Amino acid sequence: AQTVTQSQPEMSVQEAETVTLSCTYDTSESDYYLFWYKQPPSRQMILVIRQEAYKQQNATENRFSVNFQKAAKSFSLKISDSQLGDAAMYFCAYRAATGNQFYFGTGTSLTVIP
Amino acid sequence: GAVVSQHPSWVICKSGTSVKIECRSLDFQATTMFWYRQFPKQSLMLMATSNEGSKATYEQGVEKDKFLINHASLTLSTLTVTSAHPEDSSFYICSARFLLGTDTQYFGPGTRLTVL
């Protein structure tokens, strides 16, 4: 069974600094997708970034980038130049390429300190 | 990104009544929608996968007779909580699979259900 683990329940970062959120997963599939979703206090889930497992290049979206280590089954999210609006719960998610179901980690609550 | 709406955003009902929650994909057709439940400060728990024109697939432990799902069109799925009880109080989130382009899921804003 696929599992997604986020070992950091809470993280904090100073405004304008960089923070990295960790995520590991377990799967026997070779083709899959990985995602980071943000859930602010409004509780609307927002897609932050997406990575295809067959791509070696790490995905980037403006201040957000990932470090995808397929062999280690690791998928960390780096937030550069942190802003107050980045404060939220961040969920790592996995989906097999041939599947429908998303598997979510338990989330990391990020606090941004002014 | 694609837009998914949910209605209502919050609802309070008496124990024993039924509540219907709608999930709509506003600018794309979604053959597959998902219903999640989220308790405070916890992750999303998948309840069921809803496929247009067919019966929903429920996750283990989810009562299909209590949580009725109908996916009547490519843009609408509904979740009906029948004979609601206080323990059904939770935050319910739907998502829709967007097949084109990024082939990912987009989430609705959620519905907070409180059963008195």
General description of the model:
The complex is a heterodimer of chains A (114) and B (116). Chain A is mainly β. Helix content of chain A is 0%, strand content 53%. In chain A, strands 2, 5, 6, 10, 11 and 12 form a 6-stranded mixed beta sheet that branches. In chain A, strands 3-9-8-7 form a 4-stranded antiparallel beta sheet, with no helix packed on it. In chain A, strands 1-4 form a two-stranded antiparallel sheet. The mean pLDDT of chain A is 94. Chain B has 116 residues and is mainly β. Chain B is built from no helices and 11 strands. Chain B starts with a strand and ends with a strand. The chains are: A mainly beta (114), B mainly beta (116). At the A-B interface, β5 and β6 of A face β4, β5, β9 and β10 of B.
What is the rounded distance between the termini of chain A?
41 Å
Cα end-to-end separation of chain B:
36 Å
Order of helices and strands of chain B: EEEEEEEEEEE
β-strand amount of chain B:
over 45%
Q: Count up the helices of chain A.
A: 0
Computed Rg of chain B: 13 Å
Taking all residues together, what is the mean pLDDT of chain B? Answer: 90
> Quick one: biggest sheet of chain A?
6 strands, mixed
Radius of gyration of chain A: 14 Å
Determine the fraction of residues in helical runs of chain A and give it as a percent range.
under 10%
Report the principal-axis shape of chain A. Answer: globular
